[in-house]
Amino acid sequence: MSTKSTKIVNLYAKSFYQNICSNLNQERSRPVPLVKGEYRDICLPPKQEEKILSTLSLVSHELHILRSVFLYSKKFLDFYSSPINSTDKLKMLLTIFPNLSETMISFLQILAKNNHLALLPEICDEYHRILDRFKQKTQIKVILASIFQKRNAKLFLKKIKELTNSKEVLPFVSYNPKLLGGFIIEYNSVIVDTTILKAFSLFSETV
After folding, report:
1. If you average pLDDT over residues 134-160, what whole number do you get?
2. d(CA 40, CA 48)
3. N or C terminus of the chain with fewer C-beta within 10 Å?
4. pLDDT reported for residue 47
5. What gap in Å lies between CA 15 and CA 8, rounded to an integer?
6. Alpha carbon 19 to chain centroid distance?
7. What confidence score (pLDDT) does residue 35 get?
8. Separation of alpha carbons 204 and 76, rounded Å
9. What is the mean pLDDT of residues 105-134?
10. What is the mean pLDDT of the chain?
11. CB–CB of 169/199 below 8 Å?
12. Which residues are 175's β-sheet partners?
């Protein structure tokens, strides 16, 4: 996907998220900001946050269903990528999925108007990343030199939550004995390398 398309996708996902939050929180005069000055720099009453989260999750589920159809049917994706009238594309989509929420239908109408329905899979992925940050959920990539014992694994996850300021972490773990010891963590474009191999590399550079 081109840089321009990526920017368009990010803008759609961010605007969709903010519009949902703003519509459910009419007392605020500006859109709900995002985490750490971006996605969650606010304090909402528990009931209000629950309502917002419920709607955000419903939309997430609908986007996931739409994404699956687009990705698993090449003919479907090709049709929505073609120059055929966008109104016809939207009508077909609403015929296939007649029970979509009003929130989702309104969003699809905007995409159809701009002939961007084919971007739904990428918009879905970005929206899910935003929703994870709203829930203070972080995906992390972990490379270990060896398998952790159960007790050490629990302590490790606790420290990772503190490091990423998350309520929940979703680790994707792999093993590489060539690291000799320690681990590598990657999250939100941040890399933490505590491996013995890295220490040896730094030592050799200073010798």
Report:
1. 77
2. 14
3. C
4. 64
5. 11
6. 17
7. 44
8. 55
9. 89
10. 78
11. no
12. 144
Both tokens of 5, joined, read 């398309």
Tell me the two tokens of residue 80.
């929505």
Cβ count within 10 A of residue 162:
9
Domains and CATH numbers, the chain: 3-132 (1.10.520), 137-206 (no CATH)
Residue 12 to residues 145, 182, 191, 201: CA-CA distances in angstroms?
40, 40, 28, 43
- φ/ψ of 41, rounded to 5, equals -100, 40
What is the reported pTM?
Answer: 0.64
User: 25-37: per-residue pLDDT in tens?
Assistant: 654 444 444 444 4
> Which band of pLDDT confidence, cut at 50, 70 and 90, is reported for residue 41?
very low
Cα–Cα distance for residue pair 45/165, rounded to 1 Å: 21
Q: Tokens in use for 162?
A: 């503190």
3-state secondary structure the chain: CCHHHHHHHHHHHHHHHHHHHHHHCCCCCCCCCEECCEECCCCCCHHHHHHHHHHHHHHHHHHHHHHHHHHHCHHHHHHHHCCCCHHHHHHHHHHHCCCCCHHHHHHHHHHHHCCCHHHHHHHHHHHHHHHHHHCCEEEEEEEECCCCCHHHHHHHHHHHHHHHCCCEEEEEEEECHHHCCCEEEEECCEEEECCHHHHHHHHHHHC
Q: Are strands 168-175 and 137-144 parallel, antiparallel or unpaired?
A: parallel
